[in-house]
């Protein structure tokens, strides 16, 4: 599957918040290109029965069946900036929606989140780059966690992300030590790092090496 647009700056805008006529295609492309990262992240969550799970930036939520295969009793809340992605997530997960096992909420970028429940885990894949203040944002997330709750962030290596033609405007990439510092600064403990590498094939057939890291901290 190829990106639906060839204008790299426009593609970057759509990856940050899929909208308009390209929203559905961008959601499908994003899941297709990131699914290995997403599934590996889910594998690291070690979910317990009846866990409250928060996800930041769920896209079209095609990964939720895999998440619920890991632990069918979880209670899932996802937040997204894109109304179109909430629509796609609802269409893609009719049974989970009917069972009221999932909740999809629209939020504004960098918005402080407030809920009447506490979460066992908050995870996010490839959204860190869009936050104006990751420290402030994840300090808020930390307040939403139960004692011993976990934050799990998956990110592409800075050296690779900064070379992406679509990521020249509106993206800020980080090194693993920089993210470790953020997690430590907000008071998380037992910080762990899991490194991976995959090979993607571009539209022109070029193979692209993509290292990434799953980082986890405990409240």
TrEMBL record:
Keyword hit for Lipid biosynthesis: no
InterPro entries attached to this UniProt entry: SAM-dependent_MTases_sf
UniProt-listed Pfam families: Methyltransf_23
Coiled-coil positions: none
GO molecular function: methyltransferase activity
Domain of life: Bacteria
Pathway membership, UniProt: Lipid metabolism; Phospholipid metabolism
Biological processes, Gene Ontology terms: methylation
PANTHER family: PHOSPHOETHANOLAMINE METHYLTRANSFERASE, PHOSPHOETHANOLAMINE METHYLTRANSFERASE ISOFORM X1
Name of this protein: Methyltransferase type 11
